[in-house]
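Entry 12.
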Amino acid sequence: MSAGEFASTVAVSRAGGTPGAAVLSRLRLVLELGKIRISALSTLSAATGAVLCARSAGWGLATLCAGVLAVAMGACTLNQVQDRSYDARMERTRRRPIPRGAVRPSAAAAAGVFLVLLGTAVLALAHNVAAASLAAAAVLWYNALYAWLKRRWALAVIPGALIGALPPVIGWVSAGGAPWDAGALALALFFFLWQVPHFWLLALARAADYERAGLPSPVALLGVRGLSRLTAVWMLAAFASSLLAPYGLKSAAWSGAALAALGLWVVPAALRLFGGQWQPGVHGRAFRFINIYALCVMALLVVGALL
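Predicted 3D structure (tokens):
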């Protein structure tokens, strides 16, 4: 936010509230613009990559997480500036800060650029240029290519999913590994395959929003039945890729067994989706499920590396 906006808000809150309340309000606004839940998941995946490469959790995790979080929040903030006209037409996003008038697009853009520059500087100075370069590449892929492509192609999430594959590689490289190491590639493959059904389940749950906004919709292209089945296939592919990760990471045998055991949870869910259970709410529940599944995979891999 600009200094003028911040000072104005503090002055108003002194008249009718407290300065502390104004600061908290601004912080909430920054977190909203930065899509904190998405950015936090990217940060966790980067931390996973670093721990798996180093086989330890050192103090470097703090600067890695700070740098990746800042870059991710900056990219998401810039994306909200780019998508503000679409967000205003969608029920799910119309209450975001820019559509509801809580912040000017120019101020949000300045904040986004600042966060991206700050995060890449932290990664370069506290870790290495390779990690900072990968972070910058992720921003370009997200805010330049994907932001443009998703307005023109209903299946843009497939190349766009490379964005989700980069954070664990950034973490791996920050810990001294190479991006072409088997472990880094195994992590990148899982997060690439996972991100596609993550997006498609949201699109299925919010199909009317995409139509209202005028964005190319995978539901309109493939239908609910077709997209549900394709999503189920990608879910199974993500699960299969998770079984390869322990081999690339040279993890203990129990780690692979634990990941395989998650199949008792993932496979039936995917088969139900493939088999035609499209009652209202099923896609929203499946969306939450696949997010929890990614957290479980990261937790099992990290515990396997540290024990």
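Annotation: The first helix runs from residue 3 to 16. Residues 1-16 have pLDDT under 50 and may be disordered.
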